[in-house]
Structures are given as C-alpha cells and as structure tokens.
Amino acid sequence: MAKNGSSLLHYLNKSTSTSILFTKDTVEDSSIVSNDATTAIGALILGLVFLLGVPGNLFIIWSILARARQRSVTTLLILNLACADGFLMCLTIFFLIYLARQNWDFGNPMCKGLFYLCNTNMYASIFLITLMSLHRLVAVVWPHRVAALASKKMVVRAIAVLWALVFSISIPALVFRQVRYDHDEQNNTRLVCASNHSRSRYVVYQYTFETVVGFLVPYGVIVSSYVCILRRLRQTKFRRKVRSEKLILAIVVMFGIFWLPYHLNNIMQVVAEQFDDSSPTKKRLDMVWQPSRAVTSTLAFISSCANPILYTFAGKSYIREDGIAFMARLFEGTSLDTGIKKGIGLKDALSFSSTGGNAVKNEKQTLV
C-alpha cells in the first residue's frame, strides 16, 4: 500500500507540477466519490442527463439559428441559455467517467477548468433566467414601455455584462479546486478532484457566496417577477389564462427543485464549519452533506436538460402542423413579446408571453 501511495503521489506531483501538503490547519472537502452508493446514483443520473441534454439543447440552438426567421429578445436569451446548457452537457462525459471509475484521470488543470466551467454555467443559467423573467415582467406589466426598457440593443449589452460577471465570480472554483489523493472505505488510495480550503473561513466564503449570489437573490427576483406577472394575468380575462399560469409555475418550480438540494448541501457544510471537529452536531451534519454531495451535484445538472422538455410542452400544438420546425415556430412567436406597438392585443401578448405564441392567430386585434 505504501508503494502504491508513493506512486500515486509521484504521478500527482508530476501532473500538477506542485506538491500538495496538508497541515493540521488544512480543511479538506469530502470528495463526491467518497460514497459508493451515492456515486452510483450520481453516475446513473449523469448518464441520462447526457443522453437527453446534449441533443435537446443542440436542437434548440439549431432551431433558432437555422430555422427561426425572426429572433426576439426572448429568443436571444433562450439561445444563450441553450448554449450554456449544451456546453455543460458536453462536459458531463468527464464527470460520468469520474464517478464511474471513482478516480480523477484528467490531471490538475482539467480539474480546475472543468469545475470552473460548471460554476460559470450555474451562474449563467440563473442570471439568464432572471433576465428572461425581468423582460417578461416588463412585457406583461408595462407593455407600452417594453420598447424603451427592454429593447434588443439593451438586452445584448446586458448579456455581455452578464457573461463578463459570470466568468469573474466563478474564479473561486478555479482557485480552490485541486487534485489530491484520498482513501476510500477499503483504504485504497485514489486521485480525487475536490475543493481544498486552507482555512475554515474559505469554506464559509465560497459556499455562502454560491448560495446567496447563485440562488437566493436571483431566485427571489424570479419569484417576485412571476408573482407580479400572475397578478396581471388574473386581471385580464382570457381563455388560456390557466395554461399560462401553469407553464410559468412549471419553469420556476422546476429550477428550484433541481438546484435547491445542492444549495441546501452547501448551507449544511457552512453550518458544520461553525462547530469544532469533536462536536456531535458537526459530525451529524457531516454525515448528511458529505455522502449527499454526488447526488445533489448531479441533480443540478438535470436543470440544464429540462428546458428542452418545457419548450416541447409549450410548442406541442405546432408539432402536427410544422413537424421538426415546431420549436422554430414557437421561438418566432416570441417577437410578439415586444409587439404591442404593432397592434397586438394586450390579452394576446399576455397569453403568448407564457405559452409560446397562440397570439399569432389574433395579430390584428386592437388594444384593450
């Protein structure tokens, strides 16, 4: 065993060009491959996510770039979201191999880079959905101001700032993530890609920042926006109102379901760091968040393959008429989000902003 451990350490030092030394002050995060059962579950989920997410998001990108004749603000945001999700889905193959082999085979640069890109996707997805929600809020609640407050030019600038912000605030994942050697339950030595915090306060900083900036604040904005939208929808009597509300709630709830466990896991780890190592509370918390890391992380990946399913649901009425171009027709209809000034009825704009475009049939109606 000593010989094997020495060989692994030699390989690790060679691949990272630096020695990893752990002192008594070093805080090591538990690896996501530290538990056989949760690792197997995580690998199964990732496999399904890869099979659904890659073709689903590539189909969205193709539909917008190759088949959609009109590209609205909403379409532009959906395109960016699909690119972010599709790119992440392509990276899942590395994590699938990691979970299946329970050993990191790709070296330290890939360890840092891949988890950094995962963090950028987390922030990009929630920020793009937030921006989409704010644009929909303006289109529904203040339709006559949408051209001034949420024009395509302003949204393009907002997206550029968003991506710059995303790549900046994801740097902690690049700094703290590192390859190290670990021992499994059978005391076998292996390489893992895990967070390596030299001080407890760095654990608190990283995961508190992720949860607050990457979930609580933007998700609060999303929920508040849709509360205002639903109130406005209820004030307008039209026959597709119930379906509109259901789709809006599905978008919000689905995102929360898949990301909430990950951030709850972060919170438990942060709380555990407030206690001494000998504390029974810390031990109980560690027994919960450590084995759950693999499952909660892979559940978060599902949110990146869920959007194509929602869009398919929203555009199912187009499938029989337009065939493979049904999603392009769905996205073309989003031009009506900012089409109030062209004589589209407020009822139709409200209905379309949630369901994806039945207002096309009523384009000539006047304002109510």
TrEMBL record:
Q: Which GO terms describe its molecular function?
A: complement receptor activity; leukotriene receptor activity
Question: Does the keyword section mention Transmembrane?
Answer: yes
Q: Where in the cell is it found?
A: Cell membrane
Q: Which residues cross the membrane?
A: 40-65, 77-100, 120-142, 154-176, 204-227, 247-264
What is the residue range of the signal peptide feature? none
Is the keyword Phosphoprotein assigned to this protein?
A: yes
Biological process GO annotation list?
inflammatory response; phospholipase C-activating G protein-coupled receptor signaling pathway; positive regulation of cytosolic calcium ion concentration
Q: State any GO CC term.
A: plasma membrane
Top-level taxonomic group = Eukaryota
The protein's UniProt keywords, in alphabetical order, are:
Cell membrane, G-protein coupled receptor, Glycoprotein, Membrane, Phosphoprotein, Receptor, Transducer, Transmembrane, Transmembrane helix
Q: Which residues form the G-protein coupled receptors family 1 profile domain?
A: 56-311
What SUPFAM superfamilies would the database entry show?
Answer: Family A G protein-coupled receptor-like
Topology in the membrane? Multi-pass membrane protein
The entry's family comment says:
Belongs to the chemokine-like receptor (CMKLR) family.
Q: What is this protein called?
A: G-protein coupled receptors family 1 profile domain-containing protein
Question: Which organism does this sequence originate in?
Answer: Oncorhynchus tshawytscha
Name the encoding gene, please: ltb4r2b
